[in-house]
Amino acid sequence: MSITLNIRSRITLQDGNSMPLFGLGVWAAQSGKETYDTTLYALKTGYRHIDTAEMYGNEKDVGNAVIDSGLNRDEIFVTTKLWDSGLGYDHALKAFDASLKKMNLEYVDLYLIHWPEKGSQLDIWRALERIKKEGRSHSIGVSNFAPKHLKELLVKGNERPVVNQIEMSPFLQQKTISSFCRTENIHLTGYCPLARGKRFDDPKLCRVAKGMKKTAAQVMIRWALQSGHTVIPKSVRPERIKENSNVFDFNLNKEQMKILDGLEQGLRFCPDPLEIPKN
Ligand SMILES: NC(=O)c1ccc[n+]([C@@H]2O[C@H](COP(=O)([O-])OP(=O)(O)OC[C@H]3O[C@@H](n4cnc5c(N)ncnc54)[C@H](OP(=O)(O)O)[C@@H]3O)[C@@H](O)[C@H]2O)c1
Fold first, then answer.
1. Using CA atoms, how far apart are residues 87 and 151, in angstroms rounded to an integer?
2. 10-196+229-236: what fold?
């Protein structure tokens, strides 16, 4: 990945659709005005990818902002996620209908199973395959899936998951999942890319940031992009939304990437997918 990336750069997924490498996450953005204003501001700033979920309770506000942005629908990539993946095929279809209705959109770009549940995920996956076939989600994928969860879908599914959204930052690199996904050509989206702001004072990170006249947050986002992942930092503050998007005018060199690669600490805010039982 090089400096030639820009805020709208897309990666082609294995189903032939494309996805912007940079986006806005809206977990913990309050439903109503906060999410609406945040999403609209991000779209005005040049973001073209919004990551929401049934569980965040703010799909409606994301949908309203997408519509009110005045942008063509096909310029914006919208992801949402199925929450209760243990409740079966019919529930998954109903939950998707409810998400789409809340967003007041005709389709989403990507629908994900938010977390794997113990037991088979095939039933749920069949529902997502149907949603894709009907054109109501252009792509389908998963989140927080370890190789053991993915294997079932890869072997028995009619469609392959094209994205796995997992927690990822220089301080948590998830090597087992990421190397499996690389081999299977499953694109990774990294969430908590800023480690929720808890490592901005790391001395090595600060040294790289100072050398580039960038903030620690910008360097963490750039690291994700140059590592080849999609990245979805969250902020509800206009100045930070702007700051987080200002990562396309510099390049981390090999040595700087190596320093960041060396920051692995297993720092995790969400459960470890490797520890979620399959059966
Ligand atoms: N699939 C999943 O299971 C899953 C789980 C977690 C998250 N996600 C997705 O990933 C997105 C990002 O993850 P996250 O929200 O957990 O964590 P994050 O993006 O690593 O960090 C967000 C936190 O950092 C602050 N922040 C943002 N930009 C900053 C900056 N430039 N300087 C200082 N502080 C800054 C934000 O505060 P302010 O808002 O106050 O600026 C917020 O407290 C979520 O919003 C969600 O869409 C998915």
1. 21
2. TIM Barrel (3.20.20)
